[in-house]
Amino acid sequence: MNKDEAQEQESNQEQEAATLNINSDENIAGTQLLNDPVAEESEMEALRMKIQELNDRYLRQAAEFDNFKRRNARERIELIQTAGKDVITELLDVLDDSERAQKQLDSTEDISQVKEGVQLVFNKLRNTLGNKGLKPIESVNKDFNVDLHEAITEIEAGDEMKGKVVAEVQKGYYLNDKIIRFSKVVVGK
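Above: the chain sequence. Below: its structure as tokens.
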């Protein structure tokens, strides 16, 4: 290796050191040494801050969710306690009519008037419940259906009534197209 090549190699090394500005040896000129702490501490501090921020956000969301669950449970309890309020409020009119009918029973001797009054109270009760979505299940003379009917007994009813509902012991009801009570029926065999 001649002198020119050695100078060129040394020049190249100086340029690399200048661009990197990092020295591996304390004795060589440069602004930053490899054994000096570089940007690692500031990176670590930034990561610590990010972890603290995420932890704080997590704790706030967990507390917010707990508050939501408590508020939701409280509202649900209130809803359950007052769910039938509107139905009961409307039935109070029927109760008032029933009390008036009871007073008439005590004071009136005319049976036709008493019958008419009681019939009006029953009709008002049916209409009030019907307005709330209550519908009776029609059963008599229909085919027996285990999804709608509960068979109490079977009786001989002839060939045309075989497998059909002969009589209804207790009426069944839908509430908004959902069965809330099955019809108790007598089935022909």
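The helical segments are 3-20, 40-82, 85-107, 111-131.
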